[in-house]
């Protein structure tokens, strides 16, 4: 299968600080759910930020269908088809749900098409339609996460990157979030997922990537990672080796 | 009763001018987190543009207003490119911008003082000293016109922010800069344009101020605390809050000036600043500060 996104041996960090990623890489194939796991501080969120252009890549390459993305701004990378929902959901609290959705299509020039897509999303996610005039900052955590994820669909992205979508949500709501993610994947959108609850995330993924100390240690089918006793022990709930 | 109504009208008329003076400061803080201590000095710059237009060519300051706004907007772009753009990613951005805007205020004051001396000036079109009488109540036409024009400009700004594509980008950047960038907003361009709009508002306010107050280059030091109190009371970065605070404090200051003494009138703004910081630091419409 051809590679949609290739991250090759990248080094990146915050500002002038030390490199958080040092030798991180992964191969992303279209239509799959890819889960990035690893301990706290492994560089999982940093990897997503580097891919979407929020952090400067110091070494290595990020390529989307062969095109090099290094040095592009987040808005340019979004236009290439990579959307990112960070941990804090990136909503505009004093804008209404409708305005937040409109911001999702900020790069679109065809206003009529944008309104059509927003209407379609409001029909699909009923809660967003019901609360279209409500300020996003006054909604519950689950509703905010639904809005953040649904908003990425406006741009019809090739890849959606989700950083800890379950953070701070009740278990029932977490299941709903994973349901939305699966639905996106079923529609052909490639998912890159970072999730603390690695067991649960891997069970819902096709491909797993293990990151530790800023570098990629393993990657392979999620099922294989789940059944690998070494991965189980080190990263999926067992005690870490000294 | 008639006295109270008279004071209320004078306070409201002045409130409109203060609202415009503070709006640019609020916009620049909201989008870029710059506490622009040079804002009142740039208002003085706008006042001089209107003054010389009137003095040399007899052009009405209201006609000079767009010229002052344009000249100051260009000044804003130059300032942004020279001074603030390179600091945008600095870890000490907030501290640096306070120092840089303070230095800018000194430079603007020095430049204007050198060019035009420290003489008190005032633009004097006929309406600046005229008044409309409604029974026993008089409304100074200068303040009335200035207030109406201020509200018209703020209204236009509000419509621009609410409905235009670039207005969406400015509001989004104000609320969540990273999110705006992720969704395709060129936040650097938004920063520069917002800064230019903020300084253009200073220029427009200057043209109005030129016939409402007498002014001289160092006058801006009197205004910075007044404008900061409006912005803090309104909620840092909230233009609506600044407008409400401007009317609220101007009316209170007018009553304090009439009933207690004019010296205490200005103190109203400073007192409000202290009380707000103690009781409700987020102001009328600002975000509650987080403990972490």
Automatic annotation (TrEMBL), chain A:
Coiled coil segments of this chain:
none
Q: Name one GO molecular function term.
A: branched-chain amino acid transmembrane transporter activity
Q: Which domain of life is it from?
A: Bacteria
| Keyword match Transport | yes
GO biological process per UniProt: L-amino acid transport
Tell me yes or no: is Transport among this UniProt entry's keywords: yes
InterPro entries reported for this sequence: AAA+_ATPase, ABC_transporter-like_ATP-bd, BCAA_Transport_ATP-bd_LivF, P-loop_NTPase
UniProt KW keywords:
Amino-acid transport, ATP-binding, Nucleotide-binding, Transport
User: For the ABC transporter domain, which residue ranges apply?
Assistant: 5-238
Q: Which CDD domains match?
A: ABC_TM1139_LivF_branched (cd03224)
Q: Indicate the family of this protein.
A: Belongs to the ABC transporter superfamily.
**Annotated protein name in UniProt:** Amino acid/amide ABC transporter ATP-binding protein 2, HAAT family
UniProtKB/TrEMBL annotation, chain B:
Give GO BP annotations, semicolon-separated: amino acid transport
Question: Chief subcellular site?
Answer: membrane
Question: What cellular component terms from Gene Ontology apply here?
Answer: plasma membrane
- Residues crossing the lipid bilayer are 6-30, 37-57, 63-84, 96-117, 137-161, 182-211, 223-249, 256-279
> Could you tell me the keywords of this UniProt record?
Amino-acid transport, Cell membrane, Membrane, Transmembrane, Transmembrane helix, Transport
Query: What is the top-level taxon of the source organism?
Result: Bacteria
Q: Where does the protein end up?
A: Cell membrane
One GO molecular-function entry:
transmembrane transporter activity
Look up and give the membrane topology term: Multi-pass membrane protein
Pfam families hit by this protein: BPD_transp_2 (PF02653)
The family classification in the record reads: Belongs to the binding-protein-dependent transport system permease family. LivHM subfamily.
The record, for PANTHER family, names:
AMINO ACID ABC TRANSPORTER PERMEASE PROTEIN, BRANCHED-CHAIN AMINO ACID TRANSPORT SYSTEM PERMEASE PROTEIN LIVH
Q: What is this protein called?
A: Amino acid/amide ABC transporter membrane protein 1, HAAT family
Native organism: Poseidonocella sedimentorum
